[in-house]
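Side project, low priority. Logging it here so it doesn't get lost.
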Amino acid sequence: MKNEKIIILDCGSQYTQLIARRVRELNIYSEIHPYNNPPKINSQVRGVILSGSPFSVRDKNHPTLNLDEIKGKIPLLGICYGAQYLAKINGGEILPSKIREYGRANLSFIDNKNKLFHKVNKDSQVWMSHGDTITKIPNMFNIIASTNDVEVAGYQIQNEDTFAIQFHPEVYHSVDGKQILSNFLLKICNCSQDWTPESFVIKTIEDLRLKIGKDKVVLGLSGGVDSTVTGVLLNKAIGSQLYCIFVDNGLLRKGEFESVLEKYKGMGLKVKGIDAKSRFYEVLKGVNNPEEKRKLIGSKFIDVFDDEAHLIEDVKWLAQGTIYPDVIESISANGGPSATIKSHHNVGGLPDFMKLKIVEPLKTLFKDEVRKIGRSIGISDSLLGRHPFPGPGLAIRILGDVTPEKVRILQEVDSIFISSLISSGLYNEVWQAGAIFLPVQSVGVMGDERTYENVVALRAVNSTDGMTADWVHLPYDFLSKVSSDIINKVKGVNRVVYDISSKPPATIEWE
């Protein structure tokens, strides 16, 4: 079973992954590839999109693309940098903008007869992000959109299904952006929208059976959505060949170890619980650097799995619940130019001493797509609706060194916060929530005594995929009660603050 696909050539834009998401929202499979290493164009590829870029086409070392097998042969859409690049290589002129457009703008002209702008309003709001402007278009180029400040906001090359737009249709601020992408994908690329959760499950199970054969697989379960969906998919594909391990690293939420083991009963998964708290605390002792903490935790997980894998005769594979944002934030997508943000403990392969191959059935999916897949294979909404929880656990929510006492305090704080969200009916209104232990102490007064105790921060955000996020405006009354409960019930805390930062510029986690 082979799905049609759209190829996105990544020139380094911060929005490249959003393009992929918007395409997939239309039930069309998309892949991101580096601009300098495009895949072979075959019958599955229905169209190509060129992303934006932090570079200018006037820069000496700007990204250059080989479009010999693409332009004029299959539909092509250039976005922002992509639009300027196509104009330049065909003899157009690009100069620094006299009025730099960044942010909201409105289309003052569109060619309503052009397929790209079907059902798009003339005054439609679009999102601009560019410092250069196409001041002269080549012959055989027709302008199909303008704004008050930019004449060439969109164009098509005559006698070709080659289109370009200066704005970003993939971001939410472009009101008709999804319609424009839909027009390109359905009316120009003639995609059949055959990529659905059901088709993904069928193909993935088929691929897993082919890849794994009769081999045994060990999987680390965490109780989260990603590892659970991974486990159920593998169980459907290979059944009794799958061995699941759930490790208590001492960095889980309060009561998580016991509750997770209980939840997996009846799901048909073979799960072994491992108490490894002391091993993780020992390796993290005195470590303050967040990247070092992540790497030490990842390394210790590997040690634990290696020990357990040796107890399973002839195990060949280690399964992981890696998803697309993990890969994007750890390394440039498929070796491309996008910036690295942070490492993830489950990305980057295994050391030579661990003779296991890796299988990652979800590594091309965003978080909301994982939930859709989980729902299609019968996983309960109560489990699928759980908030994301970082792989390194509370270690990266404790700023500074990790100690059992800090973990205890943070577990208690987190438990009060999450249970309060649930009891107040707010849990499902939030994409992710948690508490952070800050490396500061503050003066307080309890009764008639002066205290000097710890400060914790509460964090609640809304997002669709973890790539961007906005802080949640939780009710003041709710925050007041939670703060009071934490200070009164958790020994060692005398101050609670609420994080009102969005991503970007902040990240969801503090480390």
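Brief comment: Residues 290-309 form the longest helix (20 residues).
Revisit when time allows.
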